[in-house]
């Protein structure tokens, strides 16, 4: 069995003290670039992985950025993570992911565990948290960026879109095209606060313009093409007069399109459809579906940029509250 190398062995091979080797591997500013490169090269060639827990006792943080999202099962959050990873790629920081499952109590436990590792930053999806979580975020020894949503009271930095406004924008688009008998199908309701806000904005805009929502389905389970297909069929059986359906996600609207194909319904003449997120799954469909671009990759990139800038400024960065503009693509289904 190969002997496990310790830090003192790496230091000896590099011809430096154990303290210098430790500081080199933590990218300390008082170690020369040449020494850092030599120590890192030797460590990598021997498969040595630094003990970040031990290093954090002196540096107060590890080179990890905690990213907490509600799910990895959808197509939504992987693109956010891609934006984070892309921006951190040329820095010493690396993302580590936790999943809350749309459960605020679980989110609290995930964030507590992640903060115990003293990360260099924390990026968390959403503005709704338990009171304990809000206190942890407020007292964190690292920059905290809440992402995806701007309709609420952020603890620190915040970057996202207004989901209330996104819902209103889609309602205006549908009304401008002459639709009046309109339905809504949403999933993860009411756990998905952002989908609930889009629904509220959508209904508020319809009401402001004198139109009542004809039917709604607020499904507690997750999004899938099959669920979209089944719930569309259920709604049309219940309310055959429906002209247009707004879905809480693109995945569901694809299911709606599948139902129309099987039922022989023409889109948009018999039924108009619109989803949300502008997911890659829409590319290559026989009919371009209406959607809203939720700026997912841009949000991930901007959040990582805020963490890096706060790190450079030693935590003295003023709170950033940045609202990105969602954009509707009407496709050919409205």
Automatic annotation (TrEMBL):
Q: Which GO terms describe its molecular function?
A: DNA-binding transcription factor activity; transcription cis-regulatory region binding
Domain HTH lacI-type, residue spans = 7-59
Q: Give the keywords, sorted.
A: DNA-binding, Transcription, Transcription regulation
* Keyword Transcription regulation found: yes
One Pfam family, please name it.
Peripla_BP_1
Asked whether the UniProt record includes Transcription regulation among its keywords, one would answer: yes
Q: Cross-referenced CDD domains, in alphabetical order? A: HTH_LacI (cd01392), PBP1_GntR (cd01575)
Q: What is this protein called?
A: Transcriptional regulator, LacI family
Q: What phylogenetic lineage does the species belong to?
A: Bacteria, Pseudomonadati, Pseudomonadota, Alphaproteobacteria, Rhodobacterales
